[in-house]
Amino acid sequence: xxxxxxxxxxFGLVSIPIKMHAATEDKDVSFxxxxxxxKTPIKYEKVCPVCEEKVEKEDLVKGYExxxxxxxxxxxxxxxxIRQEAGEKAVEILDFINxxxxxxxxxxxxxxxxxxxxxxxxxxxxxxxxxxxxKVGIAKIMLRSKEQLAVLRIYxxxxxxxxxxxxxxxxxxxxxxxxxxxxxxxxxxLNTAKMLIDQLTAEFEPEKYVDExxxxxxxxxxxxxxxxxVVSVQEEPPKDNVADLMEALQASVDKNKKKxxxxxxxxxxxxxxxxxxxxxxxxx
Length: 284
Known about the structure:
Layout: E1 5-11, E2 14-22, E3 47-48, E4 53-54, E5 62-65, E6 71-74, H1 76-85, E7 90-97, E8 107-115, H2 120-133, E9 136-143, E10 146-155, E11 158-164, H3 187-200, H4 212-225, H5 245-259, H6 262-283
Parallel strand pairs: 1-7
Antiparallel strand pairs: 1-2, 2-8, 3-4, 5-6, 7-9, 8-11, 9-10, 10-11
């Protein structure tokens, strides 16, 4: 596994040398833009629109755009000085908290942390302490020219670092338009919705979820490589024209019943009958 960063975990007065590895990878199918005439990849050159000349990498400087459209130029030496002051090669644990206190909206990227030379014992100590205390560490780390907030937790047998968004990076949910203030729903609709949720409740098995779009795209590319003619199969439109919310919920429940095994169906019938009786009593 490729090492993308080397540094240490600062755990009180303990320093644990570590290596960082990406824990996830994007599987997107990427395309390049080609010239249709000769199928040659297109080049993108940096050109100054004022000087009308090509700009080389060594001629570039960083500029921060202000509200009035002008730029503040910041030199690389100035950026490097700030990075060093922030402790670019250390993961500093600030607090220990309960994992349930962190809302999932804060999570960003995941990285595996493994011990570097001489750090095995201290790494094992921190891993065991986190496991036994059922706590996670809140830390800061300089990564890719940005001070990241992060959480250190145990994943299987490895210490995992997950970068977090800062609070001011989370947009306010109150700004989402057209969100109803009150739960104005009918009890019958609610009971049917809960019944549907109960039917679809299962253990989380990530292996059963696949990226069907990406697989179809790869199949298309492979077929074209073999010189095959590719024809898309049109799916039949749904026959039921369900317009009412209650009808849609009931149709979902009925459809899901057919997918269940006889043994599972008998168990569901009991719970459904009980829910129906409760609804009937409340209605009367």
